[in-house]
Amino acid sequence: MLECMTTRDPQTAGLARLAGLIADETRAACLLALLDGRAWTASELARHAGVAASTLSEHLGKLVAGGLLTEERQGRHRYVRLADSRIAQLVEDLAGQAAPDGDARPRPRSLRESSAGSAMARGRTCYDHLAGRLGIAVTDALTLRGLLRQDTGFALTDAGVRWFATTGISLDRKGRRPLVRACLDWTERRPHLAGVAGAALCRHAMDAGWCVRIGSERAVKVTASGERALRDLLGIEADALR
């Protein structure tokens, strides 16, 4: 009698472990919170996720061991952040695919929750680049001016590379991270600019005071100087940013 034998793909177990790490609401809440690009303490994440510190510590241990988070300690405090931009891209892409459409989105339970949701939809950071209506407005303006191409995937044009240089935004192209890539915006349901260029533009906007963080989430607000800069540099009207 012939014995049936199967050969298991070595990636199968790894994929199953990764999916298992993310397939928990508490851990998913932590990963989404850390998309703001900052390091959080365990106690901050516990409050955000609505669980006890001891419970959260167990979840963080699994995420660190699985390579999704890195940790560092300063005195009594334990800080964690997303391991790198590849992990952020994975979380962003999954969040974009999982975001409900239209009427399927849960209704806000309070005025505060409604205001926070509106602020996030208006403008936020998506790990290290701009998202929401702000991110889409910037992406569309770059495309309209011939600085970014979207017809065959995202790509900076030669004029786009020069624009970043003349604007004083340095593009670090030494690593393996793509210069530009499309990231699906979970509120706008359209792609916004990510990659090296998206991160550099976001960092410049924050350092130059064009945008400031508001609240405890990832929401950002365009300042008056930011409105002027984006109008002068990209032709974006202030109404599109409010």
Q: What do these coordinates show?
A:
The protein is of the alpha+beta class and 242 residues long. The protein folds into two domains: 16-83, Arc Repressor Mutant, subunit A (Orthogonal Bundle), CATH 1.10.10.10; 87-99 and 116-241, no CATH class. The chain has helices spanning 10-22, 25-33, 42-49, 53-65, 85-98, 111-122, 132-144, 158-167, 195-207, 224-234; strands at 40-41, 69-74, 77-82, 124-126, 129-131, 148-149, 155-156, 181-184, 191-194, 211-213, 220-222. Helix 2 crosses helix 3 (42-49) and helix 3 (42-49) packs across helix 4 (53-65). It is globular, with a radius of gyration of 20 Å.
Characteristic key phrases:
Arc Repressor Mutant, subunit A; single chain; 11 strands; 10 helices; globular; alpha+beta; 242 residues
Q: Uncertain spans, ≥5 residues at pLDDT below 50?
A: 102-106, 110-115
N-to-C SSE series? Answer: HHEHHEEHHEEHEEHEEHEEH
Query: What is the general shape?
Result: globular
Q: In angstroms, what is the radius of gyration?
A: 20 Å
Structural class: alpha+beta
* Overall strand count: 11
Mean of all residue-level pLDDT scores: 86
